[in-house]
């Protein structure tokens, strides 16, 4: 049976680096306060005239170059994002134009910070069903556009970025082995932008109340993540007939080092097996997992033959994982 093999990856990051001291107007000893609670030291923010599509295109072009193929060879584009350029049309169609993917169908998918995993699973399903041969998957977000910079519990956590992966139908032992995605709509109020759509359209009043900015119930989300990820690890490992100890690496959503530490303890997995770059980029939402994937694939940390579990979680609530053999 055909399944998805990874033939290229790439990143799209803003040039502007924002250290923790930027938040000194809001937090005393900002660098120590943020780093000790999250592990984050800096993040990237886009310029006012940069958009999610701009970063997505940058990542897509890097992935195409890495794979050594042209945009015309792509027949499926899935962009995972919760900060699209516009409510319509799809950001994926903007990317399609810029990379010359004239033979592709393109659409967006929103599972908030879980969007990259859900998008990879979706593209893999198209490939397994024979509806696509070469798919471009992008996770991209510009949360600096929607943050409340007066809320110290959220604004220091996030950064902007994009990451892309190219999947191609193939056979053999390498590629995506198993996938797992879930959601729990009971938790949707925990992560939201209250005034951003038809439920509560943006007005002068909602802007004044900052209801057009990002909200997260941090404590409840922490509890959710530390419960959902261990379940995810067990489920995917059971599907594959392996134990967590058989995994060479785990790439978690880069949200908070405390969450990763908690998961490592629950499964008795050495912390060294978790690949982390959140200290440099913060929580880049849909881009988070893909940025870590691209970095550690390109720098040789992930080696041929190794087994990697890639995991995401986010609003919805949503969570999922991909087991990949390199």
Structure description:
This protein is 31% helix and 25% strand. By secondary structure, it is an alpha/beta fold. The protein has two domains: 3-173, Thiolase/Chalcone synthase (Peroxisomal Thiolase, Chain A, domain 1), CATH 3.40.47.10; 177-325, Thiolase/Chalcone synthase (Peroxisomal Thiolase, Chain A, domain 1), CATH 3.40.47.10. Strands 1-7-6-4-5 form a five-stranded mixed beta sheet, with helices on both faces. A four-stranded mixed beta sheet has the order 8-13-12-11, with helices on both faces. β4, α3 and β5 (105-109) form a beta-alpha-beta unit. The protein is globular and about 55 Å long. The protein starts with a strand and ends with a strand. The model has no long low-confidence stretch (mean pLDDT 97).
In brief:
By secondary structure, the protein is of the alpha/beta class. The protein is 31% helix and 25% strand. Helix 2 (52-67) crosses helix 3 (91-99) and helix 6 packs across helix 7 (257-267).
Task: Name a few traits of the molecule.
326 residues; alpha/beta; Peroxisomal Thiolase, Chain A, domain 1; 2 domains; 4-stranded mixed sheet; 31% helix
């Amino acid at each position: 049976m055909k399944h998805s093999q990874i033939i290229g990856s790439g990143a799209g990051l803003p040039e502007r680096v924002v250290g923790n001291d930027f938040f000194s107007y809001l937090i005393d000893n900002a660098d120590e306060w943020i780093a000790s609670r999250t592990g984050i030291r800096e993040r990237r923010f886009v310029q006012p005239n940069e958009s999610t599509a701009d970063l997505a295109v940058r990542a897509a072009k890097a992935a195409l170059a890495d794979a050594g193929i042209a945009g015309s060879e792509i027949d499926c584009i899935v962009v995972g994002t919760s900060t699209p350029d516009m409510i319509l049309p799809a950001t994926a169609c903007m990317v399609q134009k810029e990379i010359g993917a004239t033979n592709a169908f393109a659409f967006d998918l929103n599972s908030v910070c879980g969007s990259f995993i859900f998008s990879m699973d979706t593209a893999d399903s198209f490939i397994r069903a024979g509806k696509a041969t070469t798919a471009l998957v992008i996770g991209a977000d510009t949360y600096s556009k929607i943050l409340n910079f007066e809320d110290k519990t959220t604004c220091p956590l996030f950064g902007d970025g994009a990451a892309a992966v190219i999947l191609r139908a193939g056979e053999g032992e390498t590629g995506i082995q198993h996938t797992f995605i879930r959601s729990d709509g009971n938790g949707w109020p925990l992560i939201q932008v209250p005034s951003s759509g038809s439920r509560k359209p943006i007005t002068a009043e909602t802007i004044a109340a900052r209801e057009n900015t990002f909200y997260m119930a941090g404590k409840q989300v922490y509890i959710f993540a530390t419960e959902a990820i261990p379940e995810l690890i067990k489920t995917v490992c059971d599907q594959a007939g392996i134990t967590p100890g058989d995994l060479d690496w785990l790439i978690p959503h880069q949200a908070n080092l405390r969450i990763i530490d908690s998961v490592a303890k629950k499964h008795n997995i050495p912390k060294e097996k978790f690949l982390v770059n959140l200290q440099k980029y913060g929580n880049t939402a849909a881009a988070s997992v893909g940025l870590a994937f691209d970095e550690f694939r390109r720098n040789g940390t992930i080696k041929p033959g190794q087994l990697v579990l890639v995991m995401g979680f986010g609003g919805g609530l949503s969570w999922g994982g991909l087991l990949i053999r390199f």
